[in-house]
Amino acid sequence: MDHTARRRRRNLIQNIAIALLSVSAVLLFAQLQLYNLGTSEDPLYLERLTGVLPEGSPSRLREFPAPVRVVLTDSYGRYGSLGFTTNSDGFSALGLREALGSVQHLAPSTAGAFRTALSGPSMYFDFLNPLPLQVLAELTGAEDTALEGNARCLLLAAGEDGSVHLYVWDGADTVLTGTVASTALSIDSLTETVSQSGMGSVSFAFEVVEAEPLYSKLFPLSILPTELPQLPVLSAASPISGTDWLLAAFGFNINTRERYAEADGTEVITEVEADRSLHIRPSGEITYRSGTEATLEISAQEEVPTPAEAVLGASILLEQLTEDRSGEARLYLESVSQSGDTTQLLFGYQIDGVPIRFSDGGHAAEITLSGTSVTRLALRFRQYSTAGETSLLLPLRQTLAIAAEHPGTELSVGYADSGGDAVSASWLAD
After folding, report:
1. Residue 205 in contact with residue 215, Cβ under 8 Å?
2. Where are the alpha helices (DSSP H) in 85-171?
3. Where does 257-350 have alpha helices with state H?
């Protein structure tokens, strides 16, 4: 009897001890989770990237601003802006969205016809780089366009037939033209819009050759302001603080043992089973690579996305990564190309429509898709803000003398980032 009672008491004590240990383990786990969440230094901590639209995020390409240089021409002269974006105040009033949406067909034209059209009432739009027309149209807000091909520059010009004509130039040898519906943009509306622009005086390089023969050495459509633009100096920084949020964003376990630092300070995270890796450099550059297993994807209707779907999905991913980390700058699409099921996308930084170039010739972001899967993503985290000082640009004539040594150079104004903490505007030669 005594032996049986003692055994029951011992079992009871053991059961109570086991229960207490279980409760303690649960409480400890919960405390650790609350600690991790509460000490996060970053709002994206433990949030995973997705190419699918989160609620409240941009849903159309027009919500991602693209830089564009604008030149308006009337009988009195040319007026232009070197710092404009597709969502700038007044851009929608220029009528490009309506014009693109109304053109049903494009026919071959010539560079000569393009140049001649520039001499009359017109609106010229330079998007800096050739882009698929469907992508460019969506960036301006013109959706469901049937136009195909690539375009860098668009021109809306008054025609002798009383209609406005759209000219499309791809930045190389192809020029196309089509007629704009009068209900979308009439010559009277075009002329009135130009007269109310309020932009500064500019000229194209090809039209001032008689005054200065050296201008013949430049790319003919280089836009030259009569007065040098007043652009602020930018302060720059690489805004990565802590890296756990990046691991979580790309779907890595933040407690992984497959995590080490290289001699130069680069943090390397691998996942052998899924053939994935993430490199985080001290300079703020990251590179993500993925193998056969699709862990990061964008949305598309088919297995291979259209260029517009690829651009939108990539832009959403980059927006999630750079939100609140790029300061006053925004990423913009530089190029998109497709070969088979592979899509390559390049992005740069811009601030108020003025591009920011890296002195090493690299890009702000590069994304490679295989179908809808992201197989490579590289991004330079840079944060830019106006510093209150004004950039000092070289006088145009002095810049011209230097650029003329390389015939065909296109002169433009932008920022050149060499990796320091201050970035000034300067003349760029392409």
Report:
1. yes
2. 96-102, 111-117, 133-140
3. 307-322
d(CA 378, CA 380): 7
The secondary structure of 253-280 as a DSSP string is -TT-SSEEE-TTS-EEEEETTTTEEEEE
- Per residue of the chain (430 residues), give pLDDT as tens: 455 555 555 555 565 555 555 545 444 444 434 333 333 333 333 456 765 555 555 568 888 999 999 999 998 999 998 888 998 888 888 989 999 989 989 999 999 999 999 999 999 999 999 999 999 999 998 877 778 899 999 999 999 899 999 999 998 999 999 999 999 999 999 999 998 888 899 999 999 888 888 889 999 999 999 999 999 999 999 878 788 999 999 989 888 889 999 999 999 999 888 789 999 999 999 999 997 676 789 988 999 999 999 999 999 999 999 988 899 999 999 999 999 999 999 999 999 999 999 999 999 999 999 999 999 999 999 999 998 899 999 998 888 888 888 888 899 999 999 999 999 999 998 8
Q: How far is the C-alpha of 247 from the C-alpha of 46, rounded, in Å?
A: 8
